Structure prediction request, 122 residues.
Amino acid sequence: MGSVALSSGNFEQTVTGDGIVLVDFWASWCGPCRSFAPVFERASEKHPDIVFGKVNTETEQSLAAAAQIRSIPTLMAFRDGVLVFSQPGALPAHALEQVIQAVRDLDMDEVRTKISGASSSR
Prediction:
């Protein structure tokens, strides 16, 4: 399937839907971003059931700020509208596959219960 460009216009709609969405926050001047890009693209071809989105932090500065991006590349994973993973740094292919499998294996009922428990204890 390949990755899709995300912007402030389509980001929220994309990450709040059903299923898994991986988002790569990157910039063209960033060496680690350039090395991670082909890994991300190959994974997008291997997993057509997952949305692979890319946010250019140079052109989408307000979106990067809203997502509290402090370092690039940063990979975020959303499942069924819930942010379940966020980590800066370029991942090798095997580590990205581990993240994908971990996100697939999540019990989302359990995740939602933990989130509601955490928010009600504040």
Summary: The chain has one domain: 4-120. Strands lie at 4-5, 20-26, 51-56, 74-79, 82-88.
